[in-house]
Amino acid sequence: MRDGKERSDVSQGAAEPVGLDAGALGAPLGERATLVQFSTAFCQPCRATRRTLAEVAAVVPGVAHVELDAEGRLELVRVLGVTATPTVLVLDAAGRIVTRAAGQPRKEQVLAALARAV
C-alpha cells in the first residue's frame, strides 16, 4: 500500500488487532490515541509525514505522535510487517492497531483514521 492508503489490521485475517504498549514503543501512549510513524534517515516523505502527524497531535487532545527509526527497530519492523517508510500506525487508547498506512498521508486521512480510533 502506498500514498497514505489505509488498511485495518483486523482485515488481514488476524483474530484480534495487533497491539503495542509504551515498552514496545519506548514512549508513552496517548490518552485517546497514538500515531506511530516508522521512518528512515534519508526518507523525504518521512519528513513531511512527521510534520503532518505532529500538527494533528498538537490540535487533537489526548493524541500522541511517536516516531521510530525503522533501521534501529528492525525486530519491531519485522513483527509488524513494515515494508516501506513512512508507515503510520494509528493505535487506540489501549495500544491496539486500528489502521495502518504506507506512504505519506494527508492530514484529512489522519483525522479520519483518528475518528475511528477514539
Terminus-to-terminus distance: 24 Å
**Sheet of most strands:** 5 strands, mixed
Low-confidence stretches at least 5 residues in length (pLDDT < 50)? 8-16
Q: What is the helix content?
A: 25-40%
Sum up the structure in keywords:
single chain; 118 residues; alpha+beta; five-stranded mixed sheet; 25% strand; globular
List the helices and strands and how they pair.
Layout (H helix, E strand, L loop, with lengths): L4 E3 L14 H4 L7 E7 L4 H16 L3 E7 L4 H7 L6 E6 L4 E6 L4 H11 L1
Parallel strand pairs: 2-3
Antiparallel strand pairs: 1-5, 2-4, 4-5
Provide a short characterization of the protein structure.
The protein is of the alpha+beta class and 118 residues long. It is built from 4 helices and 5 strands; from the N terminus they run E-H-E-H-E-H-E-E-H.
Structure description:
There is one protein chain. The chain has 118 residues and is α+β, with helices and mostly antiparallel strands. 32% of the residues lie in helices and 25% in strands. It is built from four helices and five strands, in the order βαβαβαββα. A five-stranded mixed sheet has the order 1-5-4-2-3, covered by helices on one side. The chain is globular. Residues 8-16 have low confidence and may be disordered.
